[in-house]
Amino acid sequence: MKIIEQLRNKKNDLLNKAMGFANEGDFKNAKAMREEAEKVENDLQNAIKEMENIRAMQENNTVTNIQNKGVNVAGATVIDSTNNSINDDDMYASMEYRKAFMNHIIKGTPMPGEFTNNATTKTTDVGALIPSTVMEKIIEKIEATGMILPLVTRTSYKGGVSIPLSNVKPVASWVSEGAGSNKQKKNLTGTVTFAYHKLRCAVAVTLETDTIALSVFETTLINNVAEAMVKAIEKAIIDGTGEGQPKGILTEDVVEGQELQISKIDYNTLIEAESALPLEYEEGAVYCMTKKTFMAYLGMVDSNGQPIARVNYGIGGKPERTLLGRTVILCNYIDSYSSTLEAGKVFAFLFNFKDYVLNTNLNMGIKKYEDNDTDDIITKSIMLVDGKVVENNSLVVLKKK
Fold first, then answer.
1. Which H or E run includes 155?
2. 358: which strand partners?
3. Under 8 Å CB-to-CB from 347, ≥6 apart: which residues?
4. Which pTM was predicted?
5. pLDDT of 178-199, one tens digit each?
6. Residue ranges in 75-193 assigned as alpha helix (H)
């Protein structure tokens, strides 16, 4: 709908302005823009709910005044409506399909005949496609939740396609007036091929939820699938084996001189890491470590008694951690540094996450079965994912000596 698109564009413009002010250090105007964006977001959600109410009334041929109210599921605010956009051409976004899908998952009601054509899935492991509106929210939730996922390069190439790589860049040369320069060819040094690795997530729904509201059902499914899949994907990005899952950053070959053996955490640790990072790959590289390891650095001071690490608080009070001015990303997918950590274990690394390409097929499918031991209804979700490091020169690894 036109008004929804206008509100969404207005909100994005305000957020872009807020980020621009924040980058310039003008946090007063940044806060003002963010608060204005929040007001527009409220207007947007109200418009979406009202249109969904009207649509439901039209389909049910009733004049009942429908009101959507926010509820809490497991401490999280429920999204009243997952219908960001109403697309009459998308069968899987219709209210009829969404209700049929909910009844199929919870009560075992067979999907209507017009919704049972699985020609798009090409697999017997998928019983019904997740409604498009739920699908959009699952992807949005994954983007916003993870610490690692928003940093990597995202693609959606077809599996099995080889993408050429090159490590040679053209060089400009000074020439005399009227003279030309040598023509340079872009040399391809290899290819990267993305495979089909299946990520599976099973969510249990108890039989007591057979009267659950549509909005609660969809939100619960979103939260469970998003949390489980983001953890699995991010862990694979860090240390995936490449066998049946994406290949992780720490399983890639490290350039000579960029794998450091560290006997203790001190100021020299950071100096060695920064020295090992080539100047050409300085921009965009960040530290990645656990919170426990970062806190060990945070407690250190230099010879003048100044803290080595910094924790600033940006927009909304969110911590922004740095070491020697370089951003620190925290995660729980690697070991923390300690006196008992096994020698040879990685406890931190430097890397530009844009050099990691995550290739996903976001057309998730879903299938339901019953656990006879617990009587729970198990919802199984499927996703195709692969990922690889396409440039490893920004990778500096810190290992326990």
1. strand 153-155
2. 154, 387
3. 262, 289, 290, 293, 334, 335, 336, 337, 341, 398, 399, 400
4. 0.59
5. 666 666 555 555 667 777 788 8
6. 95-106, 132-145
